[in-house]
């Protein structure tokens, strides 16, 4: 039986971030031994992803940042674009391959961290820790005993919620035959795409060169689309809306992010915790996760270094989650017109302040000021709804 202080299950953004923080902890602070359990190649390993977040100045993972922007643009269904300068913030883009390469370099140099390729079958509490039952890359069974286990794997099913929408998307990394992109600004929400019967849809463009960009189609709705419908939606956006002309598709990415007011338990045993999206790091109203999981893993690493019980903290405040629940209900009920609501917010609230609000870094009076730019009647009716709505399991597609 192998033994370690900390077992990190899953080597996606959350698992790698926690292992990275523990690998770089000062030995004098009581650096724990860590085993990072990475799924073998196959369906359990996270697919390639692009993560975005915003912060001021230099960041911990800047060496892996593909591109960043201080200008953002939102396009309403009609009328002029809304441009905003978010300085001193930068909107940063990291591709998962680059992130993994950066973190792997530091993990390889740390004597405290060991990486194992294994499929985790069960995690169970035992006195003084937990047992992780697994199979290695060759299918042989094994057991790892750890004082603490941090599980970052996606949930098998979502907890019961009053409202659950899915943020689902399909993107193309493209290279165009002519210069077609404004590298100074990221197109955050482009509502000039056809809107679905329920929910909302928008385009998203992250330019990394005059002729290269991630071009994406995104929906907030209850059900994902079929592969052919995603392809048709991105093609329409690229050809009919952006009018990019001749292009090559270099790679693609597809994803589904739950947007839910369900409580996400961060502890499943005395020594077993969840981190990342499974531990509530995703902001329900936006789907952004990277910044929230960084707050979680930073707090966990600090607690371990100080000899405290390392319970992951909520990634978002109770006030933020309550406001998100109202917004999700307003969108799901159809009371709020999504494109009009988001366009109005970005037009009437300075973008830097709105990004801080979306990251939960504003005070109560600032939150109220932002809320006054939302449609007050639909929001109030949706807030009243929440007191009577039961929590139901999500009917997964």
Give a written overview of the molecule:
The chain has three domains: 2-48 and 95-156 and 263-305, FAD/NAD(P)-binding domain, CATH 3.50.50; 164-260, D-Amino Acid Oxidase, Chain A, domain 2 (2-Layer Sandwich), CATH 3.30.9.10; 318-385, no CATH class. A hairpin with a 2-residue loop joins strand 8 (113-126) and strand 9. Helix 1 (13-23) runs parallel beside helix 2, helix 1 runs parallel beside helix 4 (290-305) and helix 5 (318-333) crosses helix 9 (376-385). The protein starts with a strand and ends in a 12-residue tail after the last helix. It is globular and about 65 Å long. By secondary structure, it is of the alpha/beta class. It contains nine helices and 16 strands. The protein has a seven-stranded mixed β-sheet with strand order 6-5-12-13-14-11-15, sandwiched between helices. The protein has a five-stranded mixed barrel with strand order 1-2-8-9-10. Strands 3-7-4 form a three-stranded antiparallel β-sheet. Pfam families: Lycopene_cycl. This is Lycopene cyclase. InterPro entries: FAD/NAD-bd_sf (IPR036188). It comes from Streptomyces calvus.
Multimerization status? single chain
Shape: globular
Compute the number of structural domains: 3
Strand tally: 16
Class by SSE composition: alpha/beta
Q: How much of the polypeptide forms β-strand, as a percent range?
A: 25-35%
The succession of helices and strands, N to C, reads EHEEEEEEHEEEEEEEHEEHHHHHH
The biggest sheet, with number of strands, parallel, antiparallel or mixed sense and barrel status, is: 7 strands, mixed
